[in-house]
Design a protein that fits this description.
The complex is a heterodimer of chains A (448) and B (455).
Chain A lengths: L8 H19 L7 E3 L4 E3 L1 H19 L12 H20 L3 H19 L6 H32 L15 H21 L8 H8 L2 H26 L4 H24 L4 H21 L2 H30 L3 E2 L2 E2 L9 H4 L1 H15 L5 H15 L3 H25 L13 H19 L2 H4 L3
Antiparallel strand pairs in A: 1-2, 3-4
Chain B lengths: L1 H18 L9 E7 L4 E6 L2 H20 L8 H20 L3 H10 L1 H11 L4 H30 L4 H7 L5 H18 L9 H7 L2 H26 L1 H28 L3 H21 L3 H32 L10 H4 L1 H14 L6 H16 L1 H26 L16 H18 L2 H20 L1
Antiparallel strand pairs in B: 1-2
Classes of the chains: A mainly alpha (448), B mainly alpha (455).
């Protein structure tokens, strides 16, 4: 699909965007024509096409923010584009896998590219630390995942995700294999979406990685991870839902509590966003607890809302922090935004709307994301989860509003921020999208 | 420009009023699908309750806009844009016929006011309105839980359809619904003991935002009780209504006593507003026609008076630069017109006969008295307390020794006169001819009370 161009540095950016748009368009060739490819390794149907397009479009959004990596010292733009596209291949495999081997391959392709991208700012010690940490923990997680897949194979004799059958005839010992396999696979997958208690890498990696790759991780990788989890739970393990339900329930509660409560005390914007992404992982896992039939629509809407808001948030951070260096590094504390409202109306508007959307205030897409999750859970009658989630949403408002009140604080220290044309375009697009979906959620819902 | 738009709304409302036939809520209804697979719809309609409050909104917003004409705000287009956005949300709340639509606008109304306050407010505004925001959002999230529960039971968001299926709800569920809804609205109004955000938020916000908060947003709380609590948890009202009624009366007395002791003008008005809201909540929950009608009327009267009083206080602050009562005095010598307007609005607020406050307060007190004699008597004391703090406010600022000799105070003029004239005229007209307003909401009140007695 991609790659294969690096002689002319100037061409890399437009060409890679072009090929991604092309990939996006080609995906729709198979619309309404579901089928299996590569010896039943990949399944393509409308659902996977929608999710692939979400992933590709978010990658385009993130890349457009890069302005061609001009500001990077020692930057090697061509490699970054190649790695991002490579990881996109991984995510698409995670979205449409039919065979567990493909799931494993997809995750590996994605992860290896990400390890490199995390450490791509070679001069930054935090970045190197983050990359090592991510690599070590990630390697463990994929190991566990692989172990789980092996267990599954041991009990079923097949890697196919539709293979689980004949549960009634099994004895306890065989079922034990299956349970272990299921648990381990879930651990490996939830690690990727940074659900607690497998979240310890997230804050460090988010903070250490260059902001643009943080945005990439927070959006593209997360969406793909959730689709992978949804797929495995709704297809492979749908008959043992009573078993994994408890695991997901515990993960949900932990993610919500740890994510939100810890985010309150952060003073780095990126760390705050990392914990907020943990809490959003909790909300998205919650969608799996509710009505499974509606879960894919909910996850889709939630990930689109979350992606738009997160890309906008990180975009503003990149634009502003570029102009304030500390020890040669962009300054990324929350008080960076002090006085932003005074002469950067556009950036303030974008940031405010993205944070409102993340905290789920009506008029923004985030509200509907949460609404769909809540109504799914309520439909099954789990009101305890609902109340926990509500309390945590209230806490989240506290920390999402911290940057906003800094924006409007009177003591301004900020100079004029210069915005690249494409950055401006993306920020405005994300904001418009957030508001549009906030008022007419049916635009996206009607796809399913 | 903003004035033109809000004026246009007023004209539209005039048209709506002329079409409105009392007792027929479906005259002005609009419905379109919003989220078909969740069976949520964008449905709006005007009944007696809605019509009055939409009217209040359409009337007050142009006045609020007009009241800011003397000040040059930086970024004025954003300022007026936010005010108009608030108007949209308010009208949405008052007209919504779908529970989630109601929630949507209920929450959305707060957002523009929040930004008005932090951008154009005082030095501590960010902190004060932040507290307000978190507090009210927490409350309304509990309401959301209740709404989601109702939705899953009835499988529709339409209010009427839910009311039709409500008798199937078990008593415990209704009690919980009652708790969640009342919490949300009690914070919004505010009702004792959830009022701690109010005084700071009111005094730190720019006056236009304070007027919006005190005059209009607080009415969403009372309206919410009428629209959601009474129809959706009638058993909760029966069982625990008295508790909330008591809280309302406690707030009434408590707010009045605190107001007597305040020296900051804006804080004084904030506590007075808090006291009045308590009485309105008590009236709505009294379960009597007088209480219900009185609350509707008092919402109108209180909205108008609050905007008027805050405007007078703003004028005083602009002219003298003082917000504390101790350093004011003798203003009537230089500004006779201001003091006359102030007097009229203030008399409306202390409920002198022939002013709008009297009608509302009298009906409310009668309603509370009828439903619980002792509480009615206690609530009656508040009239005396109200007179004490309001007349003290007037006397200290307008009469007495003139402070700062040599400094002459400009009297009101231009757009300020227009606003004050309109408000004073309304205070008197509504006081002399209350029937026009009472008649509009009467059928709706009767219908609701009849429904409540059936349960």
């Amino acid at each position: 699909m991609f790659l294969g161009f690096s002689e002319n540095k100037k061409l890399v950016f437009p060409l890679s965007i072009f090929f991604m748009v092309l990939a996006l368009g080609l995906g729709f060739v198979d619309w309404n024509a579901p089928g299996f490819y590569f010896n039943n390794m990949i399944e393509v149907n409308n659902e996977s096409i929608v999710f692939s397009s979400i992933v590709i479009s978010s990658a385009i959004l993130v890349l457009m923010l890069s302005e061609g990596f001009k500001d990077f010292e020692f930057a090697q733009p061509a490699e970054y584009y190649a790695l991002i596209q490579l990881s996109l291949v991984g995510t698409i495999m995670m979205i449409s896998y039919e065979n567990l081997i493909m799931l494993f391959l997809g995750i590996e392709i994605l992860s290896v590219a990400l390890y490199v991208l995390t450490g791509s700012d070679k001069r930054n010690i935090r970045g190197n630390e983050a990359a090592i940490k991510y690599f070590l923990m990630g390697a463990f997680a994929t190991g566990i995942l692989l172990f789980g897949i092996a267990m599954f194979y041991g009990s079923q004799g097949s890697f196919d995700i539709h293979a689980l059958s004949g549960l009634e005839e099994r004895n306890t010992e065989e079922l034990g294999f299956l349970w272990i396999g299921c648990t381990f696979m879930l651990i490996g997958l939830t690690f990727k979406v940074s659900a607690a208690p497998f979240h310890f890498w997230a804050p460090d990696v988010y903070e250490g990685a260059p902001t643009i790759f943080t945005a990439f991780m927070a959006t593209v990788v997360k969406t793909a991870g959730f689709v992978a989890i949804y797929r495995i739970l709704s297809i492979t393990f749908q008959d043992i839902s009573a078993f994994w339900w408890i695991i997901i329930a515990i993960l949900t509660c932990l993610s919500l509590i740890i994510g939100n409560v810890t985010a309150v005390k952060q003073d780095s914007f990126k760390r705050m966003m990392a914990y907020s992404s943990i809490s959003h992982a909790g909300f998205m896992l919650m969608a799996l607890l509710g009505d499974m039939e509606k879960a894919s629509g909910t996850i889709m809407f939630y990930s689109v809302a979350y992606t738009l808001a997160t890309v906008a948030g990180f975009g503003v951070l990149m634009a502003v922090s570029k102009h304030r260096l500390e020890n040669g590094r962009p300054y990324e504390k929350i008080d960076l935004f002090t006085g932003l409202a005074k002469d950067n109306g556009l950036l303030t508007g974008v940031l405010v709307i993205s944070l409102l959307s993340l905290s789920g205030i009506p008029l923004t897409a985030g509200f509907w994301g949460k609404f769909f999750v809540f109504s799914g859970v309520a439909a099954k009658g789990f009101y305890a989860f609902l109340i926990l989630a509500i309390l945590m949403s209230a806490i989240s408002i506290y920390y999402y509003f911290k940057p906003i009140s800094y924006c409007f604080s009177k003591a301004g220290t900020l100079s004029k921020v210069h915005l690249h044309g494409s950055t401006k375009l993306i920020l405005v697009l994300c904001t418009i999208g957030t508001i549009l979906l906030g008022i007419f959620p049916n635009v996206l819902r009607s796809i399913f | 420009m903003a004035l033109a738009f809000s004026g246009l709304n007023l004209v539209l409302f005039g048209y709506a009023l002329s079409v409105f036939k009392s007792g027929d809520g479906s005259t002005l209804a609009f419905s379109a699908p919003w989220l078909p697979d969740f069976s949520l719809s964008l449905s709006f309609a005007l009944d007696g309750f809605s019509l009055l409050l939409v009217g209040l909104t359409c009337l007050l917003i142009p006045l609020i806009v007009l009241s800011t004409f003397k000040i040059k705000y930086e970024n004025a287009s954003l300022f007026y844009g936010l005010i108009l956005l608030t108007q949209v949300a308010l009208i949405g709340v008052f007209m919504a016929q779908d529970i989630f639509l109601f929630y949507f606008f209920f929450e959305a109304a707060l957002v523009p006011v929040y930004f008005l306050s932090i951008k154009w407010g005082g030095r501590n505004a960010a902190k004060a309105v932040f507290k307000m925001f978190v507090y009210t959002v927490l409350g309304s999230l509990f309401m959301l839980v209740g709404l989601v529960y109702l939705y899953t039971k009835a499988q529709t968001g339409n209010m009427q359809a839910i009311v039709d299926s409500i008798e199937f709800l078990p008593a415990t569920a209704q009690y919980l619904l009652f708790a969640g809804f009342v919490l949300a609205f009690a914070i919004k109004m505010p009702l004792f003991p959830f009022h701690t955000w109010q005084a700071n938020a009111y005094s730190e916000s720019p006056t236009a935002a304070t007027m919006l908060l005190g005059g209009l947003l607080s009415k969403m709380g009372v309206y919410g009780i009428i629209r959601l609590v009474l129809p959706f948890s009638p058993m909760g009202v029966k069982e625990y209504g008295l508790l909330v009624l008591t809280l309302g009366v406690v707030g009434l007395i408590y707010g009045s006593i605190v107001a007597v002791k305040q020296s900051n003008l804006k804080r004084l008005l904030a506590y007075s507003s808090f006291a009045h809201m308590g009485l309105m909540a008590a009236g709505v929950l009294s379960g009597t026609l007088e209480g219900m009608q009185g609350a509707m009327f008092q919402m109108m009267a209180h909205g108008i008076n609050t905007v008027g009083l805050f405007f007078v206080v703003k004028i005083i602050f602009e002219r003298t630069g003082v917000r504390s009562l101790e350093s004011l005095g003798g203003l009537s010598q230089d500004a006779p017109r201001l003091s006359i307007y102030f007097m009229i609005i203030l008399l409306g607020s202390v409920a002198l006969p022939l002013t709008n406050g009297f009608v509302g307060e009298f009906l409310l007190l009668k309603g509370v008295f009828d439903s619980h004699t002792l509480l009615g008597v206690i609530a009656g004391i508040s009239i005396i307390l109200g007179a004490v703090y309001m007349l003290r406010l007037f006397q200290k600022s307008m009469f007495g020794e003139k402070q700062n000799e040599g400094q002459t105070i400009r009297d009101v003029s231009g757009s300020e006169s227009v606003v004050l004239l309109v408000i004073s005229a309304l205070v008197l007209i509504m006081g002399v001819f209350p029937n026009y307003i009472l008649k509009i909401s009467e059928p709706a009140s009767l219908q609701l009370l009849e429904y409540l007695t059936q349960i």
